[in-house]
Amino acid sequence: MMIVLLNISESVGIWNAVIKIATPWNLAAFALAVVLFIVLKSRGKRVSPAVWIVITLLVAIPIGASVYSEFLAKTGIYRLRVIVVDPQGIAVKNEEEAEGVEVWSSLGGEPQRVKAGWQFEIPSAGKPKDGKLSIYASKNSAFLTGRTDLILADDFNPAITVNLRRDDSATVRGQVIDAGKRGVAGARVFVVGYESEAIITKDGGAFELPAHAAAGQTTLLAAEKPGYRPARQYQPAGNEPVELILER
User: What is the average per-residue pLDDT within 65-82?
Assistant: First the structure.
């Protein structure tokens, strides 16, 4: 029984290898070699050593290329070059410009600083099945972020560009209250500079607005309601709630 299972396993392995080798180019080369051989034999001509060499090369070269490609796909290393570009369209090149810039990959791994950028070395055996990879970059001190997606394929030395842009994805939230700490309904709340996005609070006085800033970046909030003095308050964008106090 064990022998039968081993034979089946070996057969499956051989069949899988044959499938990988039997590419359209290989099959075409093999067919051409067979046609050449048949034509020569049908004409009663002796197949000379030179013709045998040609036939052998027609079969061996594409098969060898397929085997090498398969070997490279399993053992090769992708050397991915990453170029980071600031919002002005200038590439981050020297150490001074790269100060505070972080680059990372969805697969992890530590990037190496190279001339005019960063480089990731990714073993082909560790790439995702679909080959998809995301490269991120940020400069937190300037509230800049960027991301570029790519697919690892036949090119083992790809290069990509990550454009840094101002991060304005955070929100700001909180509650409008009066001097007695009671929630104020009917108050108009907005981020200064974006008055068109103002909301009117409901019972409880809670609100949440696009901050047009990155998490941790300071925004200026305003709240107003007839019968109360307007309130303005600076608040870091993010999940930390703020209390805006309206006083009569």
Answer: 72
- pLDDT tens track for 115-148: 889 999 999 888 888 999 999 999 999 999 999 9
Q: Which of the four pLDDT bands, split at 50, 70 and 90, describes residue 11?
A: very low
The DSSP output letter for 127 is: S
Instruction: Give me the domains of the chain, ranges plus CATH numbers.
Output: 2-75 (no CATH), 77-166 (2.60.40), 171-246 (2.60.40.1120)
Given a contact cutoff of 8 angstroms between Cβ atoms, the answer to whether 156 and 77 are in contact is yes
Who's near 14: CB < 8 A, 6+ residues apart?
none
pTM value? 0.62
| 202: CB partners within 8 A, 6+ apart | 185
> Which ranges of the chain would DSSP assign to H, the alpha helix?
2-21, 24-42, 49-75, 95-98
Cα separation, 236 vs 231, in Å, equals: 16
